[in-house]
Amino acid sequence: MIVRKHWVTCHCYAGLLVMLLLLVNALTGSLITFAHEIDAWLNPTLLRTGHVLPALPADVLIERVEHADRRYRIGLFPLDVQAGESAELRVLPRIDPATGKPYVLGFDRVFIDPATGAVLGQRQWGALKLDRVHLMTFLDMLHRKFHLPGQWGMWLTGGVAIVWLLLSLLGAWLTLPKMATWHKGFWQRWKPAWQIKRGASSVRTTFDLHRSAGLWSLPVALMLAISGVYFSLGNEVFRPVVRWFSPITPHPVQSLPKRVGPPVAPAFSTQAAVARARHYLPPEARDFLPWYASHIPQLGSYRIAFKEDGMRERVWQLRYEQVFINDQTGELQGMTGYDSGSAGDRFLIWQYPLHTGRILGLWGRVLVFAAGIVTVLLCVTGLMVWWQRRRVPQRVAQR
């Protein structure tokens, strides 16, 4: 009994410690589950074109956009833009000849009409701005790292995820009936923990709501907490643990040697790079669709990504491949993805669709949205339970 009371106290104060951060994380997580839809509603002229005209070839669009503003080059070009939607390009500043330093752009995303190449607008991802253009990216960065600099935010969100994981497991364990009574009917004694007693006092109702909501949402909470550790503490915690069970393929961005000397222009176009990269795909991925293209001068590489049809939109669709080829010869430099990877690589790839709910399509996203709201409910009811129990001794003392 004393041991159990000790763990109840640990559960209580650990919850109070991370309550505010977890509440912020849960609210923002629920909202960004439907980030694209909300963003398009807030910024229709930025994310929508108003027509369904066919897109121009990638090389034509890249040339037009970079010619329109010589201060930047395109760092990543999407190859899967849907009809009626704008194309969101990631851009990188070029070196200003007058100063020898990169241009100060004030944005790192450019939106274009894929049928004409006309620039529709720009924004800085995750900027500390609450206007319509930046709101969803602000919430995204708040969710990822609380807008803290460097790795501090990632470490903090990772720590919150670990505490949340332990709180969820400990809370579930505390609802179990005493082991000495299991022979009298385990489920009959555990069943009340899943329910809210009718006609009970407000104090009991609050406690029942906290306990039952925690139990019903436990599977999703564990999934979100574990995948949250991956996103925030991937190199520090998640990957080292996964390597106990399976090797993980080094990512080419980190493992490929850096090119010495000034940047060299690629010997062939983006469209040619897509065609060459396809030849290196595993047999299982030969029918994958082009996803995005990126030229990385410091590696002397084109990074061409392919995805299975409906990836992260349809149920159980999550496979993709990233092919790195030499930008002068077209030779394969590296590859990372689902079919070409190890069991550990595949497990890592599962984390994003699990965390966002996209593994189950639209209904999975609805489930994650609801889980965020339930987590907010748990934070509020947990605080109420603590406050109500704290006032009980005071009332007794006053009598």
TrEMBL record:
Membrane-traversing stretches: 12-35, 152-176, 213-233, 362-387
Task: Establish whether keyword Membrane is in the entry.
Answer: yes
Top-level taxon: Bacteria
Keyword annotations: Membrane, Transmembrane, Transmembrane helix
- Tell me which Pfam families the record gives: PepSY_TM
Entry's PANTHER family?
Answer: BLR4505 PROTEIN, IRON-REGULATED INNER MEMBRANE PROTEIN-RELATED
* Name of the featured protein: PepSY domain-containing protein
